[in-house]
Design a protein that fits this description.
single chain, alpha+beta, six-stranded antiparallel beta sheet, four-stranded antiparallel beta sheet, 3 helices, binds zinc ion
Length: 211
């Protein structure tokens, strides 16, 4: 019997299994029908996430379409991630965390400078990771659209303000994404150290793909 608890409940053959180091980008093609499991290895690690159709990357994840279709801001088990053409790209098949964010955006050198001061300008940020990973396949700045932040806690206050607050994830918690079409997954394992989205300590995550 396997003692790898991160594989619990994941059916099928494991076709890919990789640790994404703290602060690093990641890109992987997930075929229709396969399931990507993201494991928050040490807890409270934001996983910034973009999706493109593998057959035509002009079709990509749309936060607006996804939120409008489900009538709710938060991504939970059962959420269908829709493209800018309104087609299902992936489904959140299971989630050990109550909800995930898709309105908080990705951190950048520019937003860090605005929020935390000019002394943070040199710090590595998610936008650089997205650019680096996308450049491997010829995509550029214009291809970076509103993203998902898995394991990130961005509550909306009564007055409509957004918070970026201490996470609700914990070591070993997982989210499972079933591909509804052939997709390209682009991830930034968030390097942010100026707010609690990574508990001020970016850590590795594990990516497991089952077919
Ligand atoms: Zn970030």
């Amino acid at each position: 019997m396997s003692t790898d608890t991160h594989l619990a409940g994941l059916s099928g053959t494991i076709v890919h299994d990789e640790i994404v180091p703290a602060r690093a980008p990641w890109l992987y093609h997930v075929a229709k029908g396969q399931t990507l499991r993201i494991v928050d290895l040490e807890g409270n690690q934001a996983v910034d996430f973009l999706l493109y159709s593998a057959s035509d990357d002009a079709e990509r994840y749309s936060a607006q379409d996804t939120v409008a279709a489900q009538g709710n801001l938060f991504l939970r088990a059962g959420t269908t991630l829709l493209s800018n053409e309104g087609r299902p790209m992936m489904t959140i098949a299971a989630s050990a965390v109550d909800y995930h964010d898709t309105i908080g955006g990705a951190c950048s050198c520019e937003s860090n400078t605005l929020r935390y001061g000019h002394h943070t300008k040199w710090q590595h940020a998610c936008v650089e990771n997205f650019l680096e990973a996308n450049l491997w396949e010829g995509r550029g700045k214009r291809d970076i659209v509103s993203n998902i932040n898995f394991f990130m806690n961005v509550p909306v206050e009564a007055d409509g303000a957004l918070g970026i607050v201490d996470g609700i994830s914990a070591p070993g918690l997982t989210v499972d994404l079933k591909a509804e079409m052939d997709v390209v997954v682009v991830v930034s394992n968030c390097p942010q150290i100026n707010n609690p989205c990574n508990a001020f300590n970016p850590t590795p995550v594990r990516m497991i793909v089952a077919a």
